[in-house]
Design brief:
This protein has 362 residues and is mainly α. 83% of the residues lie in helices and 0% in strands. The longest helix is centred in the middle third of the chain and has 40 residues, at 191-230.
């Protein structure tokens, strides 16, 4: 091997590394666009069954079916915003006029009620508050500032929403648009296999996301009924938020449960702890338990077995590994990503023993 060959090999390797680095940097700079594409693809997969129903069952033209589907999606988004915008506006107005010292005193009062209920004396409470300085170190002034910054980002969110809906329309109108873009980078000999893989992935993920919406709807109904029975204000909004957290596997239900309990307790500040706050919190815990039992033993097994064709234990391990590697985002995309990988492996490595075992149900 000559020096010229070695130097050319080194230069080629450096060129490849530089190209990869530039590619990764480019993807990093356009991460918002990639997020829009990903969200639009999910919306297109959710809307796909509606379009197929309108086209095949009701014989609607493709463009009309897409327009009606987009109107339905916009109606759902508008309904969700209609729930939250008045609440945010009201709370923002209240918090803009909020007396921070009064809020701090209310939280201290709740703390005293809890410690009194646990059997601690008033002197112990006062001494522990003074020694720990827990409330002195808490800056409740961040709440109005946070809301102001949140309102400032609404403009950016509106641009993102418009972009997502615009891309979703064309994904729905031309179902082969994304496929054509992928095939541009695929060699001719693998084109048919790639098309079959994409069609299979679309079918599985479409059923998965529709099932996920059904899962959220079931929890939303259960939580709403529980909160309305208990008599919590803004029950529908709180139930929707807590049900939405279920999109994050395993961690999401815990976050949603803690949020619901905190909102229940803080909405009854000033009431008697033992006769009002504690019983309501207990009822909320019962409702949360019922919702999670139904979700764990009915909703999730139904979704995983009938949509992505994977065993619940298999899904559990994939989600845990993805969470350890990529955090919360990894947990959210673990199931769709794993499903896509399984379909591709089955199409291109069908004879492999391990692949056969993992994809026998596909």
């Amino acid at each position: 091997m000559t020096a010229k060959t070695i130097s050319s090999g080194i230069l080629r390797a450096l060129g490849i590394i530089a190209a990869i680095a530039l590619g990764l940097y480019f993807l990093y700079k356009i991460e918002s666009v990639l997020a829009y594409l990903a969200i639009a693809a999910v919306i297109a997969l959710i809307g796909r069954p509606v379009i197929l129903f309108l086209r095949h069952k009701l014989k609607f033209p493709n463009t009309l079916a897409v327009v009606l589907t987009m109107v339905l999606i916009l109606g759902i988004l508008g309904g969700i915003l209609a729930l939250f915008v008045p609440l945010l506006a009201e709370q923002g107005k209240n918090l803009s006029l909020l007396d921070i010292e009064d809020l701090q005193q209310n939280v201290e009062g709740l703390y005293r009620e809890i410690t009194q209920y646990l059997g601690l004396s008033q002197s112990d409470i006062e001494e522990s508050i003074q020694e720990s300085k827990i409330f002195a170190n808490l800056d409740f002034g961040f709440i109005p500032n946070f809301l102001n910054s949140l309102m400032g980002t609404l403009g950016d969110l509106s641009i993102g929403l418009f972009s997502v809906l615009f891309i979703s329309f064309f994904f729905l109108k031309d179902s082969k648009l994304l496929q054509s873009g992928i095939l541009a980078f695929v060699p001719d000999r693998n084109e048919q296999r790639t098309i079959k893989s994409i069609d299979k992935i679309n079918n599985l993920l479409s059923r998965y996301f529709v099932g996920l919406l059904l899962q959220i709807l079931i929890l939303f109904i259960i939580y709403t009924i529980v909160l309305l029975i208990v008599g919590i204000e803004n029950a529908i909004v709180i139930a929707f938020l807590c049900a939405l957290f279920n999109v994050i596997p395993y961690i999401g239900p815990i976050i949603g449960g803690v949020l619901m309990i905190l909102l229940t307790m803080t909405s009854n500040l000033g009431a008697d702890f033992s006769t009002v706050i504690l019983p309501k919190t207990g009822y909320i815990l019962i409702g949360l338990t019922m919702g999670q039992l139904i979700d764990n033993f009915f909703s999730q097994p139904f979704i995983f077995s009938n949509s992505v064709k994977s065993h619940p234990l298999e899904i559990f391990l994939v989600i845990i590994i993805a969470g350890l590697l990529f955090g919360v985002v990894g947990m959210i995309v673990a199931v769709p990503g794993y499903t896509a990988i399984k379909v591709i492996l089955k199409e291109f490595l069908a004879e492999n023993k391990t692949v056969k075992s993992l994809t026998k149900d596909l």
